[in-house]
Amino acid sequence: MSKFYTGRGDDGSTGTMGSARMNKDSKLACALGDVDELNSVIGVALANLTDEHVSRGLKVIQDKLFKIGAELSSSVEGGIKPEFSLSKEDIRELESSIDSISAKLPPLKKFVLPGGTAGASNLHLARSVARRAERSVIAFSSEAKISESMKAYLNRLSSYFFVAALYVNKEQGVEEDNPTYG
Which domains does the chain have, with CATH numbers? Predict the structure, then answer.
């Protein structure tokens, strides 16, 4: 039986998929952790969704997030490895998904409070975690080269999660709550 712990991180360091070690509070460790957290939040959303179209899209995004993690890890060991990089086609596919979902929604005329069904609420959480992951990756990009495609893909994710949340609520007959101010 293999162990699921090594003890090597007891000193406050962690490793990448290669051999590089870093402090657990480094910009790379934070970016990797935020991308991993986003993937986990998507898993929770999937557990609370019944819509197959949105679920398929989320599973594709989870796969892309693993590629992002691999690209981030490889960026400190000699630069971006092409097999881990997202492509412009990945961005176009995500944009197409956003457009397809948003075409099924009424025009948005007010701000929306995060909430609604369990699935939609988890998608709103994914939206905010995606924004944090994007900020962490951009912060890390001051130390290592990351692909423009990764930056663009992460930038689009919050839009995807937002329209997906609105769509899930609409399909479940749940009206959006709007902030009361002014």
Answer: 25-105+116-171 (1.20.1200.10)
